[in-house]
Design brief:
By secondary structure, the protein is of the alpha+beta class. Among the domains are: 43 residues, Membrane-bound Lytic Murein Transglycosylase D, Chain A; 122 residues, Glucose Permease (Domain IIA), CATH 2.70.70. Helices cover 13% and strands 21% of the residues. The protein is built from three helices and 14 strands. Strands 5, 6, 7, 8, 9, 10, 11, 12, 13 and 14 form a ten-stranded antiparallel β-sheet that branches. A two-stranded antiparallel ribbon has the order 1-2. A two-stranded antiparallel sheet has the order 3-4. Strand 8 and strand 9 form a beta hairpin. Belongs to the E.coli NlpD/Haemophilus LppB family. It comes from Rhodanobacter fulvus Jip2.
């Protein structure tokens, strides 16, 4: 009996110490709010731990959006359809979910406008605050990691007459046609006349005649017209890859389109004869066609430069005559 009474003070102090430690642990995990006089205590508003919803809005188009649709015809390429429609080929591919190398087929319907942006889900409303015994949990959300966009590389010969770089165009699919078994390599750069560097590309005159019509952005076919005689050489204004060679665009006759970089294309219309095919690499000054009058009333070269799908004045890029 005496031993039991002697243990009672010891057990009392052990229990008191345990309660004190438990109280300290509770205080460390709680958030205490000092209410104003006459107000009941409240808890902190809950912090959402849900990651933000990614935006589904398409990036802005590089050109005015024509709207409507286009049905692919035999001989079309994605580049020729974009050229005909006055849009950038990258926008047209994105609007229709067409990945490189941009294979299309006759009868396919392409949208000439971006798809409607998907509606973002509404954020849940916060419930009214209620008194709880434990403190809210605050969770740190790591920031999203952006995926780096690989840099594009100009096509072969696009920077300078003597510079050859890796091409961004491995093939140019033509609607309804099988890929050719092989294409001739680009000819050595031809030193034909003066050159001028603009937009990271070295430009040369595509024909030797005089300019008989200057650029007007409002024209149905915006470019310049260069006089000449039937059969005279039409040369590539800069190195690049042929992305269209055909006669399917009304008003251009026999037409050749060359891609020099992701931003720049050049076009050569009214030719008598085309000498290159889609996917063929060409060098600055290389002959690509013979001058003619197809789609025109006289022998001439209809020459265009487009930047990001928009027609620009070629005289701002070509060297002074």
């Amino acid at each position: 009996m005496l031993m039991t009474m002697n243990r009672m003070p010891h057990l009392f102090f052990v229990s008191l110490a345990t309660l004190a430690l438990a109280g300290c642990g509770t205080m460390r995990s709680s958030v205490v709010f000092e209410p104003a006089a006459g107000q009941a205590p409240t808890t902190a508003p809950a912090v959402s731990t849900r990651a933000p919803v990614a935006s589904t809005v398409a990036p802005p188009a590089r050109t005015p959006i024509p709207g409507g649709t286009y049905v692919v015809a035999h001989g079309d390429t994605l580049y020729s359809i974009a050229f005909r429609s006055g849009v950038d080929f990258r926008d047209l591919a994105q609007w229709n979910g067409v990945a490189a190398p941009f294979t299309i087929w006759p009868g396919q319907t392409l949208k000439l406008s971006p798809p409607a942006a998907a509606a973002a889900p509404a954020a849940p409303s916060s419930p009214p605050a209620t008194a709880v015994a434990s403190a809210p949990v605050f969770q740190t959300i790591p920031p999203a990691t952006a995926t780096p966009v690989p840099a594009t590389t100009p096509v072969a010969g696009a920077v300078g007459a003597g510079t050859v770089q890796s091409a961004t165009v491995a093939a140019v699919p033509v609607a309804g046609e099988a890929a050719p078994p092989s294409l001739p390599p680009a000819a050595p750069p031809a030193a034909v006349g003066a050159s001028h560097s603009a937009g990271g590309i070295t430009w040369r005159w595509p024909a030797s005649g005089s300019v008989i019509k200057r650029f007007k952005a409002s024209d149905a076919i915006p470019g310049i017209e260069i006089a000449g005689n039937s059969g005279e050489p039409v040369r590539a204004a800069a190195g690049g890859v042929v992305v269209y060679s055909g006669n399917g665009l009304v008003g251009y006759g026999e037409l050749v389109i060359i891609k020099h970089s992701d931003s720049y294309l050049s076009a050569y219309g009214h030719n008598r004869k085309r000498l290159v095919k889609e996917g063929q690499h060409v060098s600055a000054g290389q002959q690509i066609a013979e001058m003619g009058s197809t789609g025109a009333s006289r022998n001439e070269l209809q020459f265009q430069i487009r930047k990001d799908g928009n027609p620009v004045d070629p005289l701002r890029y070509l060297p002074a005559q």
